[in-house]
Amino acid sequence: MTKRRAIPTAPEPLEAYAGCFDDLFGKSNQRDEFRRYLEGLLLPTERNKTLTGLANTEPDVGAQHPRAQGMQWFLSESNWQERLVQEHRLHVLLEEPSTAPNDQGVLVIDEHGDRKRGHKTAHIGKQYLANLGKLDTGVVSVTSLWADEGVYYPVDFEPYTPADYFEQGKHDPAFRTKLKIGVELVRRAVQVPLPFRAVVADSFYGEDHGGSHKACVTSMSATC
């Protein structure tokens, strides 16, 4: 068996956490960039959701820096499987005693919007961005989060695609309301399996005429 190439380690205890995912990355530069990505997320900066912020380079001009280019490759072109990483992240959380869920926790369904410009980003459109409190051009994702009195962490997410992407708009069979996406996230949590005593969501998610979806959420939360 070929010995794996050594890569720069992350500071502890981040290195111990990152090492749990090494088997999901077949190349040494993927494992390296994964560590740099985690470091970027933890940087004390307001730019940790931008590529240059994650790579800790200057805004705009720093996009051509080798660190930013390596991050760009890792996030957009490298062939690792995002769903496998997400599943393993949850496995680590469920196995760790300090974060293991219990049946007294709740599953929180919410949404997050990011302002974006241009037309090339998937799911982009002029829509209500809840975290900004106004209509703007951006991308919205429906999210699920597990929480009890002592700990909380994200479980899953799914992008919302605005109705104008579909030929028949909101009447198109492929269009999904945010409530429908939320129900799918509840189903995924049940399949993990992730215990919770209730599903909670903003009243905004009641603005859906598909009563069966509300019944579905109520039924699931009652049996979890």
Automatic annotation (TrEMBL):
Transposase IS701-like DDE domain span: 20-207
Signal peptide: none
A Pfam cross-reference name: DDE_5
UniProt xrefs under PANTHER family: TRANSPOSASE
Name used for this protein in its record: Transposase IS701-like DDE domain-containing protein
Organism expressing this protein natively: Reticulibacter mediterranei
